[in-house]
Structures are given as structure tokens and as C-alpha cells.
């Protein structure tokens, strides 16, 4: 095995070594990481859902439940649906940024589909 370590790996290891106990706990929280300014890490939220479209964000496109999409047996259709979902999520995020709002639960760019 080689011993080459990338710059990113090196920064991650040094950051983990230097973080305090409360920072370690923040990494394990349910849905958000508070900012750690001394490491240059901004506040980050990872709890947004898009099982059949952008969820919990008001007037958005809603697509069929996953079982309905799967029943179409149309890979391109499902790809196109989630391509549209990703565009809509980015648009919603950009709108929040323009309005000076921060990432909060259900309004971040880290999106999952609980299947």
C-alpha cells in the first residue's frame, strides 16, 4: 500500500485531531453541523428529502410515488424526473440565498430519498 496522502485527506485528519469534544458531537447530530470558523467550515444542514419531488418547500412539483415510477420500467423517465427535481431543489436554494436565508432542515442541497 502506498503512503501518498492527498491534501484533502491531510486537512481532514488534522481537522479531526484538533476539534474539540463539542465539535465531535456536532458531526454526529441528526441533521446539522454548526459552523467551525477556525477550520473554515460553514454551517451545513443535510436533511432534505425528495422521494417524489422536492419536499416541504411550498409550491413545488410532485411526482408519483416511487412504486409508480418503478412500474413504468422506464429508466430514462425516472432519470428525467430526478434531473428536474435536482433543478427545482437548486432553484429553491438559490431563492433562499437571494432572500438572505440560511440552510435549515428541509432547505439544504444535501438531498436524500428514503426508500
List keywords for this structure.
115 residues, mainly alpha, two-stranded antiparallel sheet, two-stranded parallel sheet, 43% helix
Brief synopsis:
The protein is mainly alpha-helical and 115 residues long.
How does the SSE layout of this entry go?
Elements: H1 7-18, H2 21-27, E1 32-33, E2 44-45, E3 48-49, H3 66-71, H4 75-98, E4 111-112
Parallel strand pairs: 3-4
Antiparallel strand pairs: 1-2
Question: What does this molecule look like?
Answer:
- By secondary structure, the chain is mainly α.
- The protein contains four helices and four strands.
- A two-stranded antiparallel sheet has the order 1-2. It has a two-stranded parallel ribbon with strand order 3-4.
- The longest helix has 24 residues, at 75-98.
- The radius of gyration is 18 Å and the shape is globular.
- The chain starts with 6 loop residues before the first helix and ends with a strand.
- The mean pLDDT is 79.
Summarize the amount of helix as a percent range. 40-55%
Tell me the overall shape: globular
Compute the average pLDDT. Answer: 79
Low-confidence stretches: none
- The DSSP helix count reads 4
Q: Summarize the helix and strand pattern as letters.
A: HHEEEHHE
Proportion of beta-strand residues: 5-15%
Give a quick account of the main beta sheet: strands, pairing sense, barrel closure.
2 strands, antiparallel
The strand order across the widest sheet is 1-2
**Which structural class fits the helix and strand makeup?**
mainly alpha
Q: Which value, in Å, is the CA radius of gyration?
A: 18 Å
